[in-house]
Design brief:
With 223 residues, the chain is an alpha+beta fold. It is 32% helix and 27% strand.
């Protein structure tokens, strides 16, 4: 059922915008998803770093095996990132959706276990996340950088809310979900909980705006 929902995404939307990676390739560039390749952990999965053949560094989120929950998060994030192309929103480089079987030894015999792997691959950002900078009292951000981050986050949010006919509401905006590149340009990430609202709907959410205000205030008072 979940696989059918995923495959309902229009193929025309995928072509030319993201790459479909094989599980074998991602396994290879992370040294079999080794501990040394891990750069982050979250409630929905583990994030690994790898380098593609063209030299591009990517961060890939490998979702935990939680049937139902992670399927919804995967499709939400995939669809919304396919629509949200903006300098202040994380760029989706590719994805991997693998369904297969794995040979497993059990009590001296081999059985074939069902395997389902879902990964989302993003551009790798060298600056880490904003939460790391706000919590480090010895490395306070200068005013120019703080303004740049606040402005970028606001522009990214504005694009999500007004950049298309149907607004995207992030619903989980916080410093840990704002990533920074080497030039400290902010990019909104982690769209697993995001929702897409049709323009005809009257539902309005203020959570993203409230969180954005908190982020901005935190950057202004942080030392």
């Amino acid at each position: 059922m979940g696989h059918q929902n995923f495959m309902s995404i229009e193929l025309q939307q995928i072509e030319g915008m993201t790459s479909e990676f094989t599980l074998q390739l991602l396994d290879h560039i992370t040294n079999h998803f080794s501990e040394e390749s891990i750069i982050g952990r979250g409630g929905s999965g583990v994030v690994y770093k790898g380098v593609l053949d063209n030299g591009e560094e990517i961060a890939m989120k490998k979702l935990h095996q939680m049937p139902g929950l992670d399927e919804k998060q995967f499709t939400n994030e995939f669809n919304n990132l396919m629509r949200a192309k903006h300098k202040n929103i994380i760029r989706l480089v590719g994805y991997c959706y693998y369904l297969g079987h794995e040979r497993v030894e059990h009590k001296g015999k081999y059985v074939f276990a069902h395997v389902q792997e879902r990964l989302l691959c993003y551009e790798y950002l060298q600056g880490g996340n904003l939460d790391q900078h706000l919590s480090d009292e010895l490395c306070g951000l200068d005013w120019h950088t703080r303004y740049k981050i606040i402005k970028g986050v606001c522009e990214g949010l504005n694009f999500l809310h007004t950049g298309s006919e149907d607004p995207i509401c992030h619903l989980d905006l916080k410093p840990a979900n704002i990533l920074l590149d080497k030039d400290m340009t902010p990019k909104i990430a982690d769209f697993g909980l995001s929702r897409l609202f049709a323009s005809a709907q009257t539902h309005i959410t203020t959570k993203g705006l409230i969180n954005a205000m908190k982020v901005g205030y935190g950057m202004l008072v942080a030392t």
